[in-house]
Amino acid sequence: MTSTLDAVINVNCDAIPDMPVVTFSDACSSASDITITSTETPSEVSENGSYTIIRTWTASDSCNNQATVTQTVNVTVSNYFRTMVLDSICTIDIDLIIDIAAEINAQYPGVVSSNGTYTDVSNSGALNEATGEFTPLNLADGEYIVRYENNDPECPRIIEITLKVRRDFCEVADCVTLVVHNAFTPNGDNTNEYFSIENITDPCYAENTVEIYNRWGVLVYEVQNYNNADKAFRGISEGRNTVKQSSELPNGTYFYILKYKTIEGDYSTEKGYLYLTR
């Protein structure tokens, strides 16, 4: 070998030099007859964030001579494994979605990569491993761990995020009161034309169902997400078990059942009588 090559070098992962060009001389063959092959083989990353690259050059000539040289590159990955904690996470906020990548970037800028992977270490079922979004709704109180790996071939890094989740971390918004108007007159005068439930579209009650039965217990109307508009009982039969669909129902007393999911994630039911007069 005619070029100079350090047998061992120690570098940080973000400063790994390119594989150098190595030259050989040969008393048997001309330079054009020398064949040089090279390989570069990295080891697995150790728990302390270091790994080794073995570089090998092999020269052979037409006289069947062969020479091999190697170089060992000891690589250190600074901050290979880090942890972070996300505290005070509410379990009953129906809109709460935690972007794990954004949380990591806020604390450790530049770590997140486009080909990174997420692992639900705690098997919570709350992590979308494709997007890195964590949805804590209705989780049991506790600590959940998500692992992120950036999968960088030269500077791999792992972040383990502990998410502390508890119901009593939640600040529950005050909900407006539902007011059920249990009498209506669908006679075409544009006044009191439908069964009105005030505040039913408030976020506290938006996930709801309404069922209405006649005096014989026959379901005459049902709908999900009642809203006093396109989903409102106007005295027209729309139940699955009615004898005649889309027909005007007679005056009389009916029975309603209103079910809704509360902002805390529980289910509640209200029921009572409803009076229809045309």
Distinctive features:
5-stranded mixed beta sheet, Immunoglobulin-like, 3 domains
Written overview of the protein:
- By secondary structure, the chain is mainly β.
- It folds into three domains: 8-76, Sandwich (Immunoglobulin-like); 81-169, Immunoglobulin-like; 179-276, Immunoglobulin-like (Sandwich), CATH 2.60.40.
- Helix content is 3%, strand content 39%.
- The chain is built from one helix and 18 strands.
- The strands form five sheets. A five-stranded mixed beta sheet has the order 13-18-17-15-16, with no helix packed on it. The chain has a four-stranded mixed beta sheet with strand order 1-4-3-2, with no helix packed on it. Strands 5-11-10-7 form a four-stranded mixed beta sheet, covered by helices on one side.
- The radius of gyration is 35 Å and the shape is rod-shaped.
- The model has no long low-confidence stretch (mean pLDDT 90).
- It comes from Flavobacterium aquatile LMG 4008 = ATCC 11947.
- This is Gliding motility-associated C-terminal domain-containing protein.
- InterPro entries: Ig-like_fold (IPR013783), T9SS_type_B (IPR026341).
- Pfam families: CHU_C.
